[in-house]
Amino acid sequence: MQYFIEVILPLALQKSFTYEVSEAEFKYINIGMRVAIPFGKSKIFTGLVIDKHHVLPELYKPKEIHQILDDIPIVNTFQIEHWKWIANYYMCTIGEVFKSALPSSYILESETIVSIKISDNFIDKLSLADDEYLIVEALHSQSSITLNEISKILGKKTIFPVINKLLDKGFLILQEEISETYKPKVAKYVKIKDEFLIEDKLVELLKSLSKAKKQHELILKYFQLNAYEKKPILIKKLVDFSGVSTSIVKSLIDKEVFEEYCLNEDRVIFEKDNSSSFDLSDFQLKAFESIKLNEKKHDVTLLHGVTASGKTEIYIKLIEDYIKADKQVLFLLPEIALTTQLVQRLTAYFGNQVSVFHSKYTNNERVEVWNNVLINSDKARVVIGVRSALFLPFSNLGLIVIDEEHEQTFKQQDPAPRYHARDAAIVLAKQHNAKVLLGSATPSLESYYNVKIGKYGLVELKERFGNVVLPDIELVDIKDKYFRKKMNGHFSDVLLNKIQETLSLGEQVILFQNRRGFSPFVECMTCGHVPHCPSCDVSLTYYKYKNQLRCHYCSYTISNPTHCHSCQSVDLSTKGFGTEQIELELKSIFPDNTIGRMDQDTTRGKFGYEKIIDSFKNREYDILVGTQMLAKGLDFDNVTLVGILNADNLLNQPNFRAYERAFQMMIQVAGRAGRKEKKGNVIIQTYNPYHNTIQQVLSNDYASMYNEQIYDRQNFKYPPFFRLIRLTLKHKDFERLKEGSLWMYNVLVQHLQIPVLGPEEPAISRIRNQYIRTIIIKIPSNANLGKTKNTIQSTLKSFESIAQYRSIKVSINVDYY
Ligand code: ADP
Ligand code: ZN
Ligand code: ZN
After folding, report:
1. Which of 181, 436, 568, 618 is the most buried (most CB within 10 A)?
2. Residue 262 annotated as lining a ligand binding site
3. What pTM did the predictor assign?
């Protein structure tokens, strides 16, 4: 008898491959284990076993495996099933799903590059095994080496176990992590100098501070907190607890009353905070019970609750029930920026039962979470993550919470698999017999439609927590304001007055502008020339701080020109505005206030978001300017004013979802105002105050927005009535691309009896020197989806077999956003 295994590779290949193993290996190997296998000329890959059998393949002679990499399966059958569904539904290969599902150190290949992570002075060489020592030594003289080279150095092929040991010890680092400089998270603590622990001294000190009331107060609070915490005191905590500002803490440090010190904070250890217990309000309790009832009838329930209605607390109570029933819970968020606050809230409540999983975590941290989920450990009862957390090895899922379910970032754009995490999560839940709770103040049309047709349950929460009312929204017609000369830069008099008033009350302000940089164009006032990126079909964005022009698609940068490149005129001007310009204008209008900015340019690096969010929360900034990043679920208790500088560029997007999104964005940003106690205010500046969408925001009328948009969707054949598949074709030769896309279009039209649109030049028709064309296929809900996809696949196959089209890259996006 012959023994075979079926293996998938982390490559864009549809098929699995058959390898031969010995009888002993066959007995040892289980589905879900990894094997190192030769593939192609001389490369070694990590493959995953998805089946075992005795059937000799007809078309090729199976090769033998190199080695078995695992003692126990690291992937379970739920996952393999789920990956197959993703590959099938989103029209990609299972290899691509496999590759994006596993932490990268789990799929080493012979050309993976490793380098040393910490200064090798810190490596205790005596503790290393011989093989390990040889690798560390080699990396002493060479900054990085491939696994192939390591194989030569060790004189053997079996190198994965050694590499894995060194990775576990934290000595090595893999290619994609090289740019990540390792910084342990350091937290600042404060303690009173020992001398003041003597009562007389303390009394004396307090006396001497009798005029400095706040400092006096702070010291008393310090002792209170100390008595109650009995552990090192975070400066942040002291500030929160005492209600005085950080500057008072600083002055006591300067006076040498307090001493500041730092401790490394292990990110993956969370402490339970006993003060975090709470009771649900009557409204929340009703919603909670209604969710429970809905779960009896529906697999998916939508919690439609206004901003600051306390959805998070409802999630927490629900999660608690599932944990008590010994189930795993997955909590999906649309964006890494949001995890900070949620992790704080969940870990305070659940302590060490919470794990976090996202791409800013290092490989080792991700592997650790993977393993904890795999063994169903207590440390991973609740996993908080962005969309990729969906791929973890859950075996006992009870509940998936998807917060801010309307967010478009749940859809992966590039590379494949281009999946929608909400939809893929619903499928995953079904496999586990688990329930799904979708939460949003502004549900997606798709989800709300599913409620209407009875597929999902609905629970509504119309009140904010603690009798706080929704903010007042005021519209400002900027056309009129410009006409009356009531604008100062991009600020209307109304907005400026309100900012002034808010600041004078010691409250904070959020300002929203959906563009980063100083301005999106530079224009020559003599000839009208606008500098464009040489490789992309976009104008270059002007950055004033750096005095540069930059492309947002390929990072091409030039220094700001002093004269027009077309006519030499020096009369250059900027057009449009971004967050950087708003920040600068604010600095000159409010020179005494501190201003922060949160956008893609200021949040790079592992703790980019945390720093800004924490600083704002700690009131180190009076005003925070930002892009849509700050529209999402953040909870700041001292913000009472939100300003939207220009609502129009939200409305004028070339996308059938533009109005839905503009509504969601504005309601969400508005929802950051007045979340605790005081009523908030929102000011929206616009050229179109009578636009339907703006009026719907003004009256917070989700139902009207829904009815209007769903009507259009049906009329114009869009989701949820039609499924959309978009093909994107790219090539650096314009003519060839044009010809190829036309061919593709014609063949599709011939074979499909449904609407096919295109081939279209998208709004940005060239990126990184590649021209782009798109074809959109609209599939009515009564059409046979499987058959349509097969037709598309076979058209693609024919396309690839035509020599002059082979080099045109085609990507498929199912349910594109
Ligand atoms: P949402 O997620 O609906 O926007 P949050 O869950 O952030 O709202 O709640 C808004 C604010 O009200 C938060 O600061 C939260 O801590 C507070 N809050 C909500 N429910 C409770 C409760 N039951 N007890 C105490 N505080 C609550
Ligand atoms: Zn010019
Ligand atoms: Zn570019």
Report:
1. 436
2. no
3. 0.82
